User: Fold this.
Amino acid sequence: MKLLVTFSRKEGKKPIIAQVVRDTGVLVNVERALIDSSEGEALIDIPDESCRIVKDKLADLGASVRILEEEISLDENECVDCGACISICPQEVFSFDEEFRLRVDAKRCVLCGRCIEICPHRALSRRIES
Amino acid sequence: MKKTIHQVNERIREGNARVVTAEEMPALVAELGEEGALAEVDVVTTGTFGAMCSSGSFFNFGHADPPIRMERVWLNDVEAYAGLAAVDAYLGATQQSTTREENYGGAHVIEDFIAGKAVELRAISHGTDCYPRRTITTDLLIDNLNQAIMCNPRNGYQRYNAASNSTDRVLHTYMGMLLPGCGNVTYSGAGLLNPISNDPHFRVIGSGVPCLLGGAPGMVIGEGTQASPAAGFGTLMVTGNMKEMNTEYIRAATMTGYGVTLYVGLGIPIPVLDIETVRSTAVRDEDIWMDIIDYGVPSRDRPSLGKVNYAMLREGRLEINGEEVRTSSLSSFRRARRVASDLKKWIESGKMTVCLPTRRIDPARRAGPMRETAQGPRVIEIMDRRLITISEEEPIRDAAKKLLKGETNHLPVINGEGVLVGIVTTYDVSKAVVNPEKISHVRDIMRRKVITTTADEPVDIAVRKLEKHNISALPVVDKEYRVVGMLTAMDLGKLFGGRWLK
Assistant:
């Protein structure tokens, strides 16, 4: 399960994620993070069963947590199966099947947005998970 | 054994022609032998579907009342060439909208027309006695046009060099997004299905032969622009009626950071009349080789990072310098297959027959570079030759003094041999004053990663570096990385009013 964590750094540089790992014992995977001098945002991946405990701990530490409900979505009317997205995706979400049809493994996606930006046919977008 | 074109057409008309796609042909030749395949196969169909920038269409809009001789024409705010009189215009696929830039262009207008959407025509004129009208604005559907004739000067590249990027930053090119450090390889073309790859010596592809263009029956006009078949890069000029096309095979696209382009489906049927054609249509992906070109080098003659063939590219992964790299196609092999199989159905059903060229394409042609009579400005002509530098052992205070005295904002940091090791700016010094902490020497505040230029680099390339990295100066270095000058945004002012601006 993917959680989007946002936190302020105004009161100093607290090692929030490290503390969550230490206190809960849950191994957190940081998929992407953007942290500057005043605030930070991290997308983390955790086992589904640990959701409650990790969410509560993050909230205690002053972070706001949102379960990520968006995923990458392919508009099959626009896609021509070129494959421009395949090699630029850091998560290897895209591949061809035996018929050279584009296959999307949305579960691997961390929503970095790179494919949305470069798709020549504007066939990729973020969509709320159904 | 030989066959004639009349025998093949006779069999097509009788519904008995044996038609195979270029993808099926290699296995068939391996099974039946060359003589056997010649006896068996009448036509091999080819196909490709990819970005073909050099495409566009002629339109005739019909005369308005009162009539206008259109001098400038816009279709959905995309300008078309109207120097044709009076209501004719040519719209190029890569022409971009004056209002929506790279998000909409000539290619999109072409796709919208084919999709049956209304397109707004705007035109202006200075008015004449015979054509008094000065402006017109009207909404048009493709059915309202007298003609909508696609005419593409350069389509169907025989093969196309693959692309990678050895620099440390992302490049946005017409070959798509190229990741730093040769992080990926992109390529284009349908390999063994490519029309010219199945007839590289232009024995049967030439002026007047039929093709599938954008899903409609079309025709090869002849040699394409920039054709270089002697080097393995043949191209074709093709035409077809846009009114019969469909959006399955004509798609507008945008290469982010580059611009608008048109994805075109093109297929050519190849009549199999002799052993040479059997051999050329038995071509496989592993037989078609090309270079991986380093787009990190901003000059015309970019270096090659290695040789690959379409079979290797289609694997999805290959090795560059011992590192595994993923590959991306920019053209669609799935749709190229569909073009070849549609064409196969057309010929099997007798919808299309074949013919030989009325005029042959010269297979010995080689494209040359541009003759340039005036060289653009080079860095050496405008760079600041004063050498105000500092070493990393000196105190920050000395850096501040040098910056003030030299009236500059950038200090290259050099070692004992004069070799560039870093750079310090007034910003870095100011920051050190605000946050003194424990830093006291140049080495504590200098940036070690320096973007540089060379004396013989064209100014345009240096300017691109300044823009890309959002900086205002570049140290000019020689081969040994010694500083020989500085190029600052101020120096660019020398271009204005000088001999470069006439």
User: Anything to note?
Assistant: The mean pLDDT of chain A is 88. Residues 51-60 of chain A form the longest helix (10 residues). The interface with chain B takes residues 80-88, 92, 95-96, 99-101, 114, 117-118, 120-122 of chain A (CB under 8 Å).
